[in-house]
Amino acid sequence: MTQAETSFDWIVLGAGPGGYVCALRGAQLGKRVALVEKRPTLGGTCLNVGCIPSKALLHSTEVLTAARDHGSHHGIGGTIEVQLDQLMQHKDEVVAKLVGGVRQLVDGRGITVFTGEGALAGDGEVLVRGEEGEVRLRADAVILATGSRSVELPFLPFDGETILSSDEAIALEAIPEKMVVIGAGAIGLEMGSVWQRLGAEVDVVEFLPRIAAGFDPEISKVAERIFKKQGLRFHKSTKVTGASHGKEGRVVLTAEGPKGEDLSFEADKVLVSVGRAPVSDGLGLEEVGVELDEKKRVKTDGHFRTSVAGVYAIGDLIAGPMLAHKAEEEGVALAEQLAGQAGHVNYFAIPNVIYTDPEIAAVGYGAEAAKEAGHEIRTGRFPIAANGRALATDATEGLVLVHADASTDRLLGVEIVSRNASEMIASAVAHIEYGGSAEDLARTVHAHPTLSEAVKEAALAVDGRALHSL
Ligand code: NAI
Fold first, then answer.
1. Distance of alpha carbon 282 from alpha carbon 266, whole angstroms
2. How far away, in angstroms, is 213 Cα from ligand 1 center?
3. Which residue has the CA at smallest separation from atom 7 of ligand 1?
4. 182 CA to middle of ligand 1, Å?
5. d(CA 160, CA 163)
6. Between the CA of residue 201 and those of 12, 91, 137, 175, what are the distances in Å?
7. 82 ligand 1 Cβ < 6 A
8. Catalytic residues
9. pTM confidence score
10. What tens digit of pLDDT does each residue of 124-181 get?
11. pLDDT for res 249
């Protein structure tokens, strides 16, 4: 390869939502960008084995539950059968289409893709080891966007067969009879729901006293009640302590219950979803002096600069919520900053969503966090059951909470449990983004009939004037 073919303005390591979006924005801004990715396809965890395939599976199983569990009510019936291979094929087609689309975008913008494992080699150099050997690249800026991987429990290493990470839980070839999910966060609740809908008995073991602990307790409680009705079994304040082989290839997990009692769970499949850790090893970081924090994340300043000049980091690899949209925003902000513009991420306005049915979504502060930040708050509540569209679409379970500062009425946070909460949250994000008030949200026209009207009503309720609840 000639020097011109290996010299770039920027090299981006990792083609997930952080990396490929950063590369796209850089190319838009006229930069010559190299994108290094070890997977054969672009899109990272999110598109290949995370957000997108899980959403395809969630949708397929929602189609199933709508027909199987609610069909007769609509005069729709008959025998419903699940063909798991077809369901998985649909998911694979969705992924293939999307990663192909990203490749088209990247190629169309003139970004050069190198397939292989990249590592810092000092002085703006990156060594890429691929199937066709090694190539040494050079650039003024190197952007680390290598993402994260699932965390193992020390006594329960992933084996890909029985002890699974989310990577395998999206690709099982048969429906397990008994599944234990360890961790009731985003992955545990989403994938636990998928397999429970398909017929598995699912026990969810959670270390903390509540599920979906990233949300307010009121939200956790409403969500837990709904998921329990759907058939998920929760074991909260319960700590898995060990594992042994059971009969017929099963695993037996031992655990300590809320009162210190001994519990055990037998399962054909165990999904360990206790969080993710940054991929900061094997990148030559220590060798060139890039500093890590206590969680092995790359330390950055407010401009994504690491401790080494010319090396930047974004996404799951650095502090903050491990969310694709956070990584994307950081990718854009960094690209703009490097190009001399004023790129910026408003971390307060990053929504957080769990894509169960109903979905759970939140932005800004929850009630507890708002109080901790020194606000006196007023909270408006609106039950989804009182929404007309919800009634017409079998989606009556859930609640909207709107928190506003008691003295200024500034919108501090919105939390939703509802079908389509992931879309409903967008209007709240917009109001928070420009520093709007609960009154602004309450006076914004929301189309009728939509579930989003429940957000408007909860905003009206902040001032005690919801129209469709007493
Ligand atoms: P998480 O951090 O969301 O939840 C992990 C849960 O496991 C917590 O409730 C924690 O208390 C519990 N836990 C930890 N150790 C435990 C133990 N030994 N026994 C029992 N419970 C234990 O992590 P998750 O679900 O694995 O997701 C990883 C990351 O990926 C998160 O940052 C999440 O936000 C992100 N993600 C986001 C999605 C979304 O936006 N919908 C979907 C999937 C993942």
1. 36
2. 9
3. 183
4. 9
5. 6
6. 43, 22, 51, 10
7. no
8. 448
9. 0.97
10. 999 999 998 999 999 999 999 999 999 999 999 999 999 999 999 999 999 999 999 9
11. 87
